[in-house]
Amino acid sequence: MRFSGKVAVVTGAGSGIGRATAIRLLDEGATVVAVDLKHVEPWPGRPEGRLHLVDLDVADPDAGRRLEAYLREEFQRVDVLANVAGILHIAPFLKVTRADWDRVVAVNLTGVFFLSQAAARVMVESGTPGRIVNVSSVHAVVSEPNAAPYTATKGGLEAMTRTMASELAPHGVTVNCVRPGATRTKMSEPIYTPEIVRSLQAKIPLREIAPPEWVASAICYLASEEARYTTGACLDVDGGYAMDGSLPGTVYS
């Protein structure tokens, strides 16, 4: 029950890593504000008194103001913000349109910035030593062909995390990120063809594609008091993908 008495906001909570994170926080005692575009899946067996469903597009220019007002009115505080919402657009670099680019940046980077700003204002003004956890991707450091807007936003997110951590440290607020590798979610499932899965299993040293719960565990660690002396860090949760320089199927002699 690491989060008993805490208020936690999770974006992208309708599915995937966001939903797994929200459930983990609920199970460990938090009151959770589950943010998503539209909540369509039920939350069986979850405590209604501690689960607040909020329909919100993180790319909406007014999203930060709306979240800040909601937190002030309902709780007068917030302890945790997990920025999990994200989108992936697959297209060759030469064919990416301005609309494609703008939408990915709006969700993956601009939305994170202004929702973090909103939550941090509430944390600072209430004197809460809060935790902000951003979700990056292994593709912030390893190229992903046909996903230039996505990789750009994840690289930018990691740089932004470090700057936010520096500025908020005097207020006792930590800002960190997790860097997931291959993870089965609604967003990734369409591209995980049998051929892609075989290639990933050959490339990833631990030979597994993660369920969302494995990434949620890392998010909740960084959101907890156990990580109180960690800020501006990025935690790899990728089965060894980014660090491995070996050639699958070959051995140096």
Automatic annotation (TrEMBL):
Gene3D superfamilies tied to this protein: NAD(P)-binding Rossmann-like Domain (3.40.50.720)
Electron transport as UniProt keyword: no
InterPro entries according to UniProt: NAD(P)-bd_dom_sf, Sc_DH/Rdtase_CS, SDR_fam
Keyword Oxidoreductase appears in the UniProt entry: yes
Keywords of this entry: Oxidoreductase
Superkingdom field: Bacteria
CDD domains in UniProt: SDR_c (cd05233)
Family: Belongs to the short-chain dehydrogenases/reductases (SDR) family.
Protein name stated in the entry: 3-oxoacyl-ACP reductase FabG
Organism: Actinoallomurus liliacearum
